[in-house]
Each structure stands twice: as structure tokens, then as C-alpha cells.
Write a structure and sequence with these properties.
Layout: H1 2-52, H2 62-65, E1 84-99, E2 104-116, E3 130-132, E4 145-148, E5 150-155, E6 163-167, E7 172-184, E8 196-205, E9 213-217, E10 224-226, E11 235-249, E12 253-266, H3 269-286, H4 297-320, H5 330-367, E13 369-370, E14 373-374, H6 378-385, H7 404-414, H8 422-440, H9 444-468
Parallel strand pairs: 1-9, 1-10
Antiparallel strand pairs: 1-2, 2-7, 3-6, 4-8, 5-7, 6-7, 8-12, 11-12, 13-14
Helix pairs in contact: 3-4, 3-5, 4-5, 5-9
């Protein structure tokens, strides 16, 4: 009976369960259809958005666009055929320094290369070029241009390497870089510091001779441009010019070479203040000794030695800042002639002093002897001790008078109370007769030297500045 009741209950519940299951399946199917429709709609929308936004398109790699992997860029373009023409143009940014001691110059410039490599050609609907940085340089062929006679050079790398590569659809290439280079300049100092130096920076291919690479100025004389603000402390830049030529090497042949020529004229004002003007003053100062009494030995000797030493210091300072060349420079001519004038002024006084001594000895012999000793006057005593002596007062009959300071001390001690002491008499005689005494005791050599020395030095200056300027 119980079993019959369970069967009747299950029979009643089965249609309800079937109906509910059918409804659930229909609901899930409807939901799946809605999701499928939504996905299709979203997919179409995404495709439409991608078409509108080109930045979402996956870019082509540079190597694939330029066909870098399809060619051997270790070989130059057109290998085995005619030489590839490579155009050059240069923009000089600055001339950083000129060194006379090292005979070199330092220049910063923009170096640009132009050539055509059909292996790098690509399709472009708008015919626009593509610009790359230095990372692509190692993967393609570039000209191996170097600077002849360069001592050191480097490519600027702040904040990244200053290198630009621009490729056009037809295969034309522009390669630009910013370089600072120090190169030799063969200077001629025979007219220094009134000189003009001609320097040049030379460019050449290192590996490819004229059979493989033809180096030329891209725009002729206009290929070289400079910054208008270029200036140097010691030089005035007269001109920049571009030229070309050939260089021969016995083992490898002929190479095309380009020249960046510039002329530098030196500013002379600095050297006039530091060398020429002081030398002039020393020469004129040496002439002062011609107007000093020939008996004032300490004054004239010390003045002559001072001017000689000062001229030596000026000459040493100029030589220290110059290379050790084996020829005479213009400044050397002027300084050595000035030194000669100063030296001759010292020799002039040596001759005057010697002749004065001989003349005084002759006068002593003529006067005879007194008590076995020579009688000496003020002029003779002055030649020995450098002090003026009054003949009537403090000259003793001694062959070598004592120094004037001792004579004054002795006279003051013995005749303190006497108003007419020898020192007072000497002072009275000096006050009114100094000019007359100096003129009367001038040697004839001093008289002529006052005219000859300045005249000859003025004539020398006229010839010197007329020849070198």
C-alpha cells in the first residue's frame, strides 16, 4: 500500500519537473543568443575603432622597412662599380682655443654627409623621410670620414649622442653629427705678434680611395657656414673658405681631401701693454743716467743694472709663452734691440768713468807732489767715493780721501761751536752751484749720448713698425 502511494506521488510530480526543466533550457538558450549577439556587435565596433585609430596598428620594424636584413651593409653602395659620391657640408659652431705652444687649435662643428644607398629605399605614399638616432648607424653603411692631422676628437653625447640619420624613400641619406676636434696648425712666428696665421682642418676618407668614394663639397663654397658670434681673445677671424684636393699615399693610392681654411690675425694691443711699452720705458729710463753727474757712481751704476735686469725679465716672460723655435721672431728683434740700448747705456758710463779717472790722474801728475803725496781736488775725490767735496774746505792732501760721511763727522766733532764749519760751507757752495757744477763736470760722451741714443732709437722704431705692420 505504501509503495502504491509513492508511485502515485512521483507520477504527479514528474510533469511539473519536466515543464520546469524545459523552461530553464529555453531561458539558457535565449541568454546564449543574447551574449553571442553582443559579442558580434562589440567585435564590429572594435574593428571600426581600429580603422579610425591608426596608432593601434602594429608598426613595422625598422629593419624590415629598410630591408636591412636583406643586404650586406659591410659593402659600400654600388660595390664594384663607379665610386659613390659623398657630399659634405660643415657648420662651424665655435673655435674654442688656439695654442701657440702646442701649435694646434680646437674647433666644434656640425659635420653632415650626403649620399644615396638604394638598398635603404622604401615605399611611402606621402614621400616623407624617416629620422633615426645613432642606434641605426651600426647596422648600415656610412662614410668613414676622418680628420687629417687631428690630435684628439670626440662626438658630443649630452644628453644622448649628437647623431642624426635621415633616410628618404628614394634611398638618399643624410648623416649629421656634432664633433669637437683638435688639429695641428703649422704656424709661422717670424712676425709674432704682428702675424697672421693660416690654419686648415682637413677631411678625408680613411679606407676608400678615389676609385671607391668621391668626396666633394655638397654646395660648393656655400657648403661652409659659420656662426656670426665666433670670436677669440687674441685673434680676429679674417675669413673662412672651403677647398678640395687630392692626397697620395704610396701604399694605397689617391684620396679625395677637403679643406676648411681660415685666417687668424692677432690682436696686438695685449702685447703692446705687456712687452713693447715696458721695453720702451726701460730704454728711456736708461737715458736718465746721461743727465746724472758722472761722479755719482752708485746712482748711475744702480740705474743701469736695474734697467738691464728688468729687460731680462720681460724677455724671459715672452719666451716662456712661446714655442722654442729656431728662428728670430719680430718681438725678439724689438726686445733685443731695446736690451742693446739699455746695455750700451751701462757701457757708456763705464767708458765715461774710465776716461774721467785717466784724466784726473794726468792732472795729478801735472800738479806735482807735496810731502810725497798727491794733491787731490773735489772732482778727483768724487770719482773715488761718490760724494761731492768742497775743494777749499774738506780736501786733505791724502791719496785716497776718506768717505764724505766720515769727513762730515770729523768736522762736526772738531768745530761744533764754529758757525762756519766745513759742512755748512759745503752746503752753501752746493745751494748756488749745483747746476753749474753738473754742467761743468759733464763728460763729452754724456753730452753726445743725450742726443744720439734717443735719435737712433726713434729711427729704429720707425723702421720696425713700418716693416712689420
Amino acid at each position: 500500500m505504501v509503495l502504491v502511494m509513492k508511485l502515485l506521488f512521483l507520477t504527479c510530480l514528474w510533469p511539473t519537473a519536466v515543464l520546469h526543466s524545459s523552461h530553464s533550457q529555453h531561458h539558457h538558450l535565449h541568454r546564449r543568443q543574447q551574449m553571442s549577439f553582443s559579442r558580434k556587435h562589440n567585435s564590429k565596433r572594435e574593428i571600426k575603432m581600429r580603422k579610425l585609430d591608426s596608432t593601434k596598428v602594429r608598426p613595422v620594424k625598422t629593419e624590415q622597412l629598410l630591408h636591412i636584413e636583406d643586404h650586406d651593409f659591410a659593402l659600400r653602395p654600388g660595390f664594384g662599380g663607379s665610386p659613390i659620391p659623398v657630399g659634405i657640408d660643415v657648420q662651424v659652431e665655435s673655435i674654442d682655443s688656439i695654442s701657440e705652444v702646442d701649435m694646434d687649435f680646437t674647433m666644434t662643428l656640425y659635420l653632415r654627409h650626403y649620399w644615396k644607398d638604394e638598398r635603404l629605399s622604401f615605399r611611402s605614399n606621402k614621400n616623407k623621410s624617416m629620422t633615426f638616432d645613432g642606434r641605426l648607424i651600426k647596422k648600415i653603411w656610412v662614410p668613414d670620414v676622418f680628420f687629417v692631422h687631428s690630435k684628439r676628437s670626440f662626438i658630443h653625447d649630452t644628453t644622448v649622442e649628437n647623431i642624426m640619420l635621415r633616410v628618404y624613400p628614394d634611398g638618399n641619406v643624410l648623416f649629421s653629427l656634432r664633433i669637437t676636434v683638435s688639429a695641428m696648425c703649422f704656424m709661422d712666428f717670424s712676425r709674432f705678434p704682428l702675424d697672421t696665421q693660416n690654419c686648415s682642418l682637413e677631411l678625408e676618407s680613411y679606407a676608400y680611395n678615389e676609385d671607391d668614394l668621391m668626396l666633394y663639397w655638397k654646395h660648393g663654397n656655400k657648403s661652409l657656414s659659420t656662426d656670426e658670434q665666433i670670436s677669440l681673445s687674441q685673434f680676429f677671424i679674417e675669413e673662412f673658405s672651403a677647398s678640395s684636393g687630392l692626397a697620395f699615399y704610396s701604399s694605397t693610392g689617391w684620396y679625395n681631401r677637403l679643406f676648411i681654411n681660415f685666417a687668424l690675425r692677432r690682436h696686438i694691443f695685449f702685447f703692446v701693454l705687456q712687452s713693447y711699452f715696458p721695453a720702451m720705458l726701460m730704454v728711456m729710463l736708461s737715458w736718465v743716467s746721461f743727465w746724472i753727474d758722472r761722479r755719482a757712481v752708485p746712482a748711475r751704476v744702480s740705474l743701469g743694472i736695474t734697467t738691464v735686469l728688468t729687460m731680462s725679465t720681460i724677455m724671459t716672460g715672452v719666451s716662456a709663452s712661446m714655442p722654442q723655435v729656431s728662428y728670430i721672431k719680430a718681438v725678439d728683434v724689438y726686445l733685443w734691440i731695446s736690451f742693446l740700448f739699455v746695455f750700451l747705456s751701462v757701457i757708456e758710463y763705464a767708458a765715461v768713468n774710465y776716461l774721467t779717472t785717466i784724466e784726473e790722474r794726468k792732472q795729478l801728475k801735472k800738479r806735482g807732489k807735496a810731502s810725497g803725496m798727491y794733491s787731490m781736488d773735489a772732482v778727483q775725490a768724487m770719482a773715488f767715493d761718490g760724494c761731492f767735496h768742497d775743494t777749499d774746505v774738506d780736501m786733505d792732501l791724502t791719496p785716497f780721501p776718506e768717505p764724505c760721511e766720515e769727513n762730515e763727522t770729523r768736522a762736526s766733532q772738531t768745530n761744533i761751536s764754529n758757525a762756519d764749519t766745513p759742512r755748512l760751507k759745503r752746503k752753501r757752495s752746493l745751494k748756488g752751484n749745483v747746476g753749474r757744477i753738473i754742467l761743468q763736470n759733464n763728460h763729452v760722451i754724456d753730452t753726445y749720448s743725450r742726443i744720439i741714443f734717443p735719435s737712433v732709437y726713434i729711427v729704429f722704431n720707425f723702421f720696425y713698425w713700418g716693416l712689420y705692420i
